[in-house]
Every structure is written in C-alpha cells, then in structure tokens.
C-alpha cells in the first residue's frame, strides 16, 4: 500500500478569537482565507465555545485554551471586567502551554505568528515572550476604531457635551448620538468603554494591525491610521461563495450559536416575488424595548411589502399577540414570516429581498454592502450609530430611521423608510450604490485585489 505523506507546510499561524459570535465569524473566515493560501492555521477556541458550538471549519485545526470558565463561558462571570481578568490569567498560561506543545512536536510545523482579537491585547505579551510575530485583528470598522483611539490618546475627551460636533480625520462631522453608544452614554457602559479603549494598550508593539474592511470603503481613515501602525485591510471576511468564489466549499461561516431554521426561511422566500421582501434583523445581542418592537410590528403589518422578521427567542414575548394572529389568519397570511434566526447570507443574496432593516452591527453592514443590499439603518448601541452614519452619509447605501424624544422610532417613520427604500427615489440611489460596493468588495478579495494583495504581503513577511 502506498504511503500517504503528510502535507508539508512552511508556515503555521495560530489564531485566537474573542468568544462572541460577532467576533468569531470574521476571524474564522480570515483563517479560512489564510488556509486557502497553503498555510497551516490552528484556531484556539475557549473550551466552552468548543463544547457548545457546532464547528465546521474545513481546513482549520481546532485546539482549546481556558478562559477560566470552561463549563459556562462568559455567563459564569459576575461582570465583563471579571471575565476579562480571568481570561487573561487562565488564557495566558494555557495559550503558552499550547504553543510550547506545538513547538516541541516533531510532527508539527512550528507556529511563527499569532493573530488575535483586539479585545485580548495580553496575547501580544505571550507572543513576544515566545519570539513570535503578533498580528492584532480588529472586528470593528476603521472609522469606529479611530474614534476609540482618539479617546485613548486624549484627543477626544469624554463625556462629549450635548450639541458639540466632533471632527475625526477621514469622517464627516459627528454629533454625540452618531458616536458609539459607549461614548454617548458613559454612565451605562463604563466597563465597555474601558475594554474598547484598552485595545490600544500595546498596539504600537504589534507587528501587524489587521481590519475586516477593504481599502476602497474607508480610504481616508485608512491613510490616516497607516501613519500610526502597519495597518492592512483584509476584508470583507465573508464566505468566498458570496464574493470571489475561489475557496472551494466555503459557503458559510461554519460556526453558529443559533439554530438557523434554514429550510423554513428559504422555502418561504422562494415563494415570494423578486425585490418584494423587507428583511429585519437586530443581530445577536441588541435588546429592544417592548414599545419599539410593537411599533415595528404594526409598521410591518400595514406596509405594502412582504417581510421576514428575525426576533430572537429571548425577545419573542415582546411581539403583540394580535400581530401574530393577524399575520397567520388574515387573507394576507403569506405576507410575513417571524422566525427566531435565519441563514443571513442566504437571505441577503436571495432575489426576493428588497432591503435590509438592520441594527448596523459591523458584520451585518459588511455583509449587506458585499451583497449589494440597500439598508434601513436602525442602530441600537455599541458601534452601530457610527456605522449607520457611514451607511447613509458616506457610502449612501441606506437610510437612517429617525427616533422621537423617547428614543423610539414610530410606526409612521418606519413605514416611510420602508417605502422610500423599496420604491422611492432615494431607494433607487441606495440600490445603485449598494451594487457599486458589492462590485468593489468582490474586486478587493479577488486575485490581485487590494485585500488579496494585503493578505499575500502579510504571509510573505512571515517567511
């Protein structure tokens, strides 16, 4: 019998994500792109994530480290600060042990570089002690990262007074409510702001600073930031099937916390006419007030379009019972589908889709731009207000909903935004611009594109 030789790799990259869905997906997708370029990639997941998620990541090797909460994960911590402190203590030791085990193995290619999420800057200390290259990976936009960096450097003082306009290089003027919520509402989120500012505690020592964006999308901020660090944009980090189609079998992220209810969603969409569906999703973390969910419900019921509305199981009890009755028993019972989760990439790329009402999390924003889908920007917290500002005013691929003095977007406003996005003059412009960004996103990751060249440059420097 002919002996099958083990594939010889010249480089081995270890990747350490932060254990949140919105952080895991982009860095895992980047890992798959690295692996497609004949590099060995090992992903170090926390033990809890590895046990609780269905992982299908193709060519990637999976190892585990400890965050100090191996059975329950982040939910076992008394606070975000407690979790981060314990993760650093346990993670530093178990990551070091993992790397040393790989380095001492005769059957493995030694690790030469560690790519790590910006939320865990302590990883760079481990890589430097072990004489490895350290590459920090930011899952936020360049724009939002720049805002947090200005706070870290004392160039933007918080709290920002009401009515003051903020100037950040490469961005339009921003009012307080267009800044990330951790800045506009410091009292509610002091620990989150500290976490985000702490991303820069040792970034000057990192060998590479990588971003899930592409050069053409944020050129001015990129040029400004490139004067500080060795910055490279390597996105969009979404499956190759939806972009360049160069990575065989790469059709989904391969890791999901939620049951996606795929068949139910796609079968329902298949029965709808092209460009007839409004898709609504507020992501995996945003919590809406019951009053806001009710306003969304009545707007969807009375608008002239089909709708696919994702409402997480924890939020379902906020949907008015009369709304559910109306969409299931009325003559237009096929008008809407309410579901707890869905395969978002398949939905966004479906011909039935007309627009995406989104919270403007960065992953959803990048997916929508990459698939040419116009957006109704409905930001809730975190980086979303700034992303929404860029969607409407910089990239002109969406329209932002207005809120009243109570912070609620009312039924009438939502209906107006839906109508404008689906058939209005601005909606036509949004669709044209969304298609433009789609073409540029594909070009960026395709052979010879800006992101493809950046990935190749990164790998070449490891040799």
From TrEMBL:
Belongs to the UDP-glycosyltransferase family. The lineage of its organism: Eukaryota, Viridiplantae, Streptophyta, Embryophyta, Tracheophyta. It is an enzyme of class 2 (transferase). InterPro entries: Glyco_transf_N, UDP_glucos_trans, UDP_glycos_trans_CS. Keywords: Glycosyltransferase, Transferase. Residues 13-61 form the Glycosyltransferase N-terminal domain. It comes from the Eukaryota. Its EC number is 2.4.1.-. This is Glycosyltransferase. It comes from Papaver nudicaule (Iceland poppy). GO terms for molecular function: quercetin 3-O-glucosyltransferase activity; quercetin 7-O-glucosyltransferase activity. PANTHER family: GLUCOSYL/GLUCURONOSYL TRANSFERASES (PTHR11926), UDP-GLYCOSYLTRANSFERASE 74E1-RELATED (PTHR11926:SF1560).
């Amino acid at each position: 019998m002919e002996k099958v030789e083990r594939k010889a790799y010249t480089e081995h990259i270890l990747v350490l994500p932060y254990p949140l869905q919105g952080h895991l997906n982009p860095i895992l997708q980047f890992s798959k792109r690295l692996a497609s370029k004949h590099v060995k990639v090992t992903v170090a997941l926390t033990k809890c994530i590895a046990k609780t998620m269905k992982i299908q990541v193709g060519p990637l090797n999976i190892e585990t480290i400890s965050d100090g909460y191996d059975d329950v994960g982040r939910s076992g911590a008394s606070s975000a600060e407690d979790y981060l402190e314990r993760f650093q203590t346990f993670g530093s030791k178990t990551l070091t042990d993992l790397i040393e085990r790989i380095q001492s193995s005769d059957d493995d290619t030694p690790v030469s570089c560690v790519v790590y999420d910006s939320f865990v800057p302590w990883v760079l200390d481990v890589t430097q002690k072990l004489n490895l290259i350290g590459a920090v990976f930011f899952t936020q936009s360049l724009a939002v990262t720049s805002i947090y960096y200005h706070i870290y450097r004392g160039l933007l003082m918080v709290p920002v007074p009401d009515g003051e306009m903020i100037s950040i290089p490469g961005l339009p003027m921003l009012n307080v409510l267009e800044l990330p919520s951790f800045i506009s509402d410091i009292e509610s989120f002091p620990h989150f702001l500290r976490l985000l500012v702490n991303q820069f505690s040792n970034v000057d020592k990192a060998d590479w600073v990588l971003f899930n964006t592409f050069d053409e999308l944020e050129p001015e901020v990129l040029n400004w930031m490139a004067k500080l660090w060795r910055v490279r944009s390597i996105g969009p980090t979404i499956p190759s099937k939806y972009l360049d189609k160069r990575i065989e079998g790469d059709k989904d992220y391969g890791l999901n916390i939620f049951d996606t209810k795929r068949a139910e969603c796609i079968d329902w969409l298949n029965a709808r006419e092209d460009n007839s569906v409004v898709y609504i999703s507020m992501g995996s973390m945003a919590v809406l007030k019951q009053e806001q969910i009710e306003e969304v419900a009545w707007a969807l019921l009375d608008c002239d379009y089909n709708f696919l509305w994702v409402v997480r199981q924890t939020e379902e009890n906020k949907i008015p019972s009369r709304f559910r009755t109306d969409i299931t028993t009325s003559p237009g019972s096929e008008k809407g589908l309410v579901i707890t989760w869905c395969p978002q990439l398949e939905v966004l790329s479906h011909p039935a889709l007309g627009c995406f009402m989104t919270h403007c999390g960065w992953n959803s924003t990048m997916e929508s731009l990459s698939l040419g889908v116009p957006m109704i920007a409905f930001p809730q917290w975190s980086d979303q207000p700034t992303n929404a500002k860029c969607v409407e005013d910089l990239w002109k691929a969406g329209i932002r909903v207005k809120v009243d003095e109570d912070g609620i977007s009312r039924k009438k406003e939502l209906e107006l935004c839906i109508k404008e996005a689906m058939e209005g003059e601005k909606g036509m412009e949004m669709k044209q611009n969304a298609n433009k960004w789609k073409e540029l996103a594909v070009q960026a990751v395709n052979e010879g594109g800006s992101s493809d060249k950046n990935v190749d440059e990164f790998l070449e420097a490891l040799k």
